[in-house]
Amino acid sequence: MNSAFESGRVLFWIDSLAGLIEDEIPEHQYRWDNQSAGNWEYEVDRLRDFADKRPVSVREHIAKKFGIKGRCTVKLDVRPAGGRIQINSLVPVDYPWEGIYFKGIPIRLTAIPDPGNAFAGWSDPETGGCGHNRCSDHSEPGH
Description:
- The chain has 2 domains: 7-66, no CATH class; 71-137, no CATH class.
- It is α+β, with helices and mostly antiparallel strands.
- It has a 3-stranded mixed β-sheet, with no helix packed on it. A two-stranded antiparallel sheet has the order 1-3.
- The longest helix has 30 residues, at 37-66.
- Mean pLDDT is 84; it is low at 138-143.
- It has 3 helices and 5 strands; from the N terminus they run H-H-H-E-E-E-E-E.
């Protein structure tokens, strides 16, 4: 939910794909005579609304199912620029970056310095109140 299904990314794909077929809608309308362009726009808006609201719904479902009490926002930044941070299995490309995680569920942060750089240290290892994290330096050659 912090990567592939993040709302902004899903909305980008919906808008991109809608833009690709938008010019075909009048032909579709003429050929099948049972759909209006307004209906198509309504359905695309429904997709956008679903993409926007889905992450909250999924997180609430997970929290309820597993008895998790609360969420927190983890904010990552690399200053000065010279590497990346891996959070669990995700390595964000752009910084600053933020994602929503569950309180009390361990997260793993790994510093990945660019070649020629060295990891200097964490400035806030508490990661926005999520706690229970393990931070490490991943600066071995070849990583």
